[in-house]
Amino acid sequence: MSHLSDPIADFLTRLRNSTGAMKAETNAPYSKMKAEIARILKQEGYITDYEVNTTGDFPELRITNKFVNRVPAITGLKRVSKPGLRRYVGSQEIPRVLGGLGISILSTPRGIVTGREAKKQNVGGELLAYVW
Fold it and tell me: Is pTM, for the whole model, over 0.90?
């Protein structure tokens, strides 16, 4: 097992590749942050479901991809804040993704939330990813 410098980027890449290849499920190593990102993706309708599988030596996150008329619900994912260059935004600077059709995911003092929720709660934080 190798050491990843950016496990969230690895998670998003696994998700992007599996939806592009029309796979029904995606597996990734479990972490609380990845589970929270999966919760937001399910809440916003980008994935069908997710579950934590603890039967093996290491816990694993299993995501069921969502397809609408054989087209993936996730058409794009982009990691914004990286370990080498963190990107923080204030509550008034949260960007709109595709004119409001996509979502931005932020890590705030109140947890992992979408850009819309962060604006509503008037909090800023680290801009993790864009999803559309």
Answer: yes
**Pairwise CA distance, residues 95 & 89, whole Å:** 9
pLDDT of 56: 87
**Of residues 102, 88, 94, 97, the one with CA closest to residue 120:** 94
Query: What is the CATH code of the structural domain delimited by 77-131?
Result: 3.30.1490.10
Class of domain 7-72: alpha beta
State whether residue 24 is helix, strand or coil: coil
Q: Which pLDDT tens digit goes with each residue over 93-125?
A: 999 999 989 999 999 999 999 999 999 999 999
- Taking only the tens place, the pLDDT of each residue in 64-101 is 999 999 999 999 999 999 999 999 999 999 999 999 89
3-class secondary structure, 102: coil
**E-assigned strands of the chain?**
25-29, 47-53, 60-65, 67-68, 71-72, 77-79, 88-89, 103-108, 111-114, 125-131
- What is the DSSP-derived secondary structure letter of residue 2? P
Phi (first) and psi of residue 112, to 5 degrees: -85, 120
